[in-house]
Amino acid sequence: MYLGFWRIIALKPAPLLEVGRKCASELSNSGLGGFSGFLHRQYRLHDYLLGRRNCQQFLQKHFTLPDTNPLFALGSAATGKELPIIPLVRALATVQEPLPAWPVGVFSARSIRDDLGARLKAVVDAQLKARLGWWTRHFLKLAIWLFRLRKRLLIAIVDKIDQELRLRKLLP
After folding, report:
1. Using an 8 Å Cβ cutoff, are 107 and 165 in contact?
2. pTM here?
């Protein structure tokens, strides 16, 4: 009679890197604090396909019990092997999900520079209007214009996005 219980712990396996690819994360969405997936559909698609592959491998290779476990009592004779708790069937059992291609060069922050500039202008103007009086607000708007602060900030934002993408080998 089986009186014990099993605790199943899913541990993060060693990363499966493509040959020649070295990056901080296997997820293309991990840049910008996890928000880089909003930049391009290919980043989300890559991570979705990687998740399918990882799930398939986890269910086949790690989410297993010894064939002597009572869960398999009505099945085949003991062979000393591990059997999957949730077996994959049909094509899922035979066709290995391929490792998706890393989405290099599908996006550059320069492609959304104008949109970022419009958003930056709207946010700065709204903050100045909400927090400052008329004279101070117009003085700061003049300073922003004279010193090209908005343009400098926009360049810094675009450079930061591209830097994050380069760090993850998403830019050539």
Report:
1. yes
2. 0.72
**Whether 84 contacts 64, CB under 8 Å:** yes
Distances from the Cα of 19 to the Cα of 24, 27, 51, 102, angstroms: 15, 16, 19, 11
Question: What's the chain's average pLDDT?
Answer: 84
Q: Provide, rounded to the nearest whole percent, the portion of the chain with pLDDT above 70.
A: 83
Q: Which amino acid is at 86?
A: I
Sign of the CA dihedral running 85, 89, 94, 98: negative
Spatial separation of the C-alpha atoms in residues 169 and 172, rounded to whole Å: 7
C-alpha angle 164-42-12 in degrees, rounded to nearest 5: 70
- For residue 54, the tally of other CB atoms under 10 A from its CB is 16
CA distance linking residue 27 with residue 54, whole number of Å: 12
Please enumerate in sequence order all residues whose Cβ is within 8 A of that of 23, keeping only pairs 6 or more positions apart, or say none: 17, 167, 168, 169
The pLDDT assigned to 76 comes to 66
Q: Tell whether the model's pLDDT for residue 40 goes beyond 90.
A: yes
E strands, 36-118, are 64-66, 82-84
CA 130 and chain centroid, separation: 35
Contact 165, 109 (CB under 8 A): yes
